[in-house]
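Protein modeling request. Please complete all fields; requests missing the sequence field cannot be processed.
Requester role: graduate student
Desired output: 3D structure, token encoding
Chains: 1
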Amino acid sequence: MLQELQAEISETETGRAGLEVKCVRADLSQKEGVEETVRVAKETHPGSIDHLLLVNNAASLGDVSRFAVSFTDPREVDAYLSLNVSSALSLTAGVLSVFPRRVGLQRCIVNISSLCAQQPFRSWVLYCTGKAARDMMFRVLAEEEPDLRVLNYAPGPLDTDMQAEARCLTGDPELRQSYSSMHSQGKLLSCTQSSLKLTGVLLQDSYQSGAHLDYYDL
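Delivered output (218 residues):
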């Protein structure tokens, strides 16, 4: 899919004007995957770039068929948090080290968040925990790096493979029915709808750095 997008962009006016797109295949739950991604970022000639936008979207749903009291193996929890929390911090830190603060460089970090970062969802303990931790992580980053623009963006319920997985596997029957109803009633958002709203927020650039903004609040 990324290779298809790369080819599509190369055929646009921007692509023909010299926009370079690089695809990196990496397991971000592993140290080597984070390091490889940062290494490729270094190849972009950081000194010639005047605007950095990093979107942290890599994440997984986790096992939503079970409830909190069933997660007795810390290795299972650690594996989930490695991809969904640790890698986001390490990757962001690595990219920011490649693009340090300097005059003329605008830097923006977006964390793809969720309503689950702020509200508990039964049988979604891993997902809610990961999203809440990431939100706080990026709020701290905004406090520590006042020149950065940091946004936690909750994109709304998207019509994706992950949503289909949630409709089938969610352990809590009320939550599972809620997602099924949203799907059958056509209330899920397309990725294009949500990403366009995010683009508008970033272009307007009037949000408080570190804020959590939801699709439906904009």
